[in-house]
Design a protein that fits this description.
This protein is an alpha/beta fold. It is built from ten helices and ten strands.
Amino acid sequence: MKRGINIGNHFEQTPVPGVEFADPMQDWYYRTIKELGFDHVRLPVKWSSHTDDNNGFRIDERVLGMVQKAILEFLAKDLSVVLNIHHFREAMDDPKANQEKIYAIWEQLALHFKDYPDTLIFEVMNEPTWKADARDWNEVQNNTVARIRKTNPVRKVMIGGIDYTGLFALKDLVPPENDPNLIASFHYYFPLEFTHQGASWSPTYKDVKGVSWQGTQEEIDDIRNGIRDNAKAWSDRYGIPMNLGEFGALSTADMDSRARYTRCVRDVCEEFGISWTYWEFNGGFGISSKTGELIMPLVDALLGE
């Protein structure tokens, strides 16, 4: 697992009344992602919207079947798959108050996928927020790993810290003890005024525009030093491999800046032996249109020589 991409804006989207998934998976995704040269995908799923909370948080079998189909298609293309809980909003803010639902979801997923190849990786949860208490999150996350281990004793499990799986929150991330099959993860979108300019969902950045990223030595050093002193240092301390689970710049930024930035983050990660998973395949940060037209400056920034 070295170079990957997120399959965003699909299974993690909030359900629309009368529509199962507003943006269903397309058959050409699997072939294209493999042919481009990626070796893994991250598959975000909003499981919390597809459970029966009055029946032990039982997962909707039809949704589970659709996710399973996608996983099997990716695995058949010799792509590893990172499967997570995504956009569980209540648990992102307060994992302790929602721990039973987290545990129930993962106990079901772990049992369902227990016989799948080791190229299926579990990620406990996407982006606990800055509202979450780090000690509470460590407890809930480590308890979740223990439950997964009952049926998947050696499967790779990905863990991350609070503050949106933030780089600087790694200092408070305490992994389960004596588990040699862990991967740690962080997300990187700095500087936000560049990567998130014009983001409609952000009160802070929705009206920001025209911010470029020139690739000056100062800009490069900010990225390199931050990743080295936090992600690489944490990985060395615990002896656990590190993955950059999300990075990218929104399409509202100019293309040259996006390509320079993307290539820089990629190069820094590869310098420090950190695998990476770009956000995202198609969508606002994407390397492809919905119809399959590739955005080659970003493809080259990620996979070119």
